[in-house]
Amino acid sequence: MRLDISKIKGNLNSQMDVNFDVMLEENDDIEIDFIGPVHVNAVITNTEDGYDIDGSMDVSLDAICYRCLKLFRYHEVIELHDNLNNYEEESGEKVFFNGGNQVYLDGLIRTDLLLSLPSRYLCDETCRGICPDCGADLNVGDCTCNNEPIDPRLEVLKKFLKQ
């Protein structure tokens, strides 16, 4: 998304409200199934350090629960706080175009979003997961496995009981 920032370019501490959607393309590096575009609602401020962007990103995606392995819809509103000049210097990705009158924010939004998403998704904080022995979904009910803990030093003796 290219935005025209010429209105705030010469005026220190001037602000510009931005409200737009960014469609993130699928990438071989990540396996995230976004549901529609990421909605960005932010304010760009001309500061002494460059241009600050502050706001939020509204994202929905299909995720797999880390504990029970069920597919579920994950929705989060993620805060966005960054400096466009610093991002351009650190990432090496061009942000400013047309003599500094336009900014291209897709790369910045993508980077901030991916760094803010959890590495593991849970369908519910109370998800009990699956039984490590039989694979039964413990959210539905208890399994019939013998889940008594065995001293690892004596586990070899368990084979003799089966004979």
Report on the structure:
- The protein has 163 residues and is of the alpha+beta class.
- The chain folds into two domains: 2-127, no CATH class; 129-163, no CATH class.
- Helix content is 15%, strand content 34%.
- It is built from three helices and eight strands.
- The protein has helices spanning 84-91, 106-116, 158-162; strands at residues 2-4, 15-22, 33-34, 38-47, 50-64, 71-83, 96-97, 102-104.
- The strands form two sheets. Strands 2, 3, 4, 5 and 6 form a five-stranded antiparallel sheet that branches. The protein has a three-stranded antiparallel sheet with strand order 1-8-7.
- The radius of gyration is 24 Å and the shape is elongated.
- The termini are far apart.
- The model has no long low-confidence stretch (mean pLDDT 86).
